[in-house]
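A.,

Following up on our hallway conversation. Structure tokens first:
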């Protein structure tokens, strides 16, 4: 047989909750700071593209004490982290900032975010700076819409 022991504090808190039920708090994100800017995603995407370029020119960009292989390995790890940050910043914009009325006014929003997050995923696998540029281009399209919504 299992005996459950509850502390006096637990019982007191439960009794208080019954007398004065706690109110529910609603927020659009974990901390409703209201600070949104696609520049965060763009900066990380610029880093992705720059790393892709450095990967291509590893012989010239590596430090004197490291091998090309070691340099490229570091590039890949950092690029993947940055690509994940792009996704994270885009998801925050999409899920916390943009509202149904934005989607009504800009019906292409869903596809732009879908394409941007897909490009960020492809960036993890690609060392081609052209792919990094595609990511930047779609983020710029999102940014243009974002700033249009801020005018309203």
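Then the amino acids I'd put at each of the 152 positions:
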């Amino acid at each position: 047989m299992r005996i459950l022991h509850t502390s006096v504090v637990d019982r007191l808190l439960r009794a208080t909750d019954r007398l004065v039920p706690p109110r529910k708090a609603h927020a659009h994100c974990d901390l409703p700071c209201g600070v949104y800017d696609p520049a965060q995603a763009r900066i990380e995407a610029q880093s992705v593209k720059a790393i892709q370029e450095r990967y291509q020119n590893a012989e010239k960009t590596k430090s004197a004490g490291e091998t090309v292989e070691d340099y490229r390995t570091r590039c890949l790890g950092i690029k993947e982290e940055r690509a994940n940050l792009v996704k994270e910043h885009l998801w925050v914009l999409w899920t916390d900032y943009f509202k149904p009325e934005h989607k009504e006014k800009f019906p292409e929003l869903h596809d732009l975010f879908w394409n941007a997050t897909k490009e960020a995923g492809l960036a993890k696998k690609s060392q081609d700076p052209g792919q990094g540029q595609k990511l930047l281009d779609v983020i710029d399209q999102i940014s243009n819409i974002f700033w249009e919504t801020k005018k309203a």
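Residues 40-151 form a domain with the Four Helix Bundle (Hemerythrin (Met), subunit A) fold (CATH 1.20.120.400). Curious whether your intuition agrees with the design.

B.
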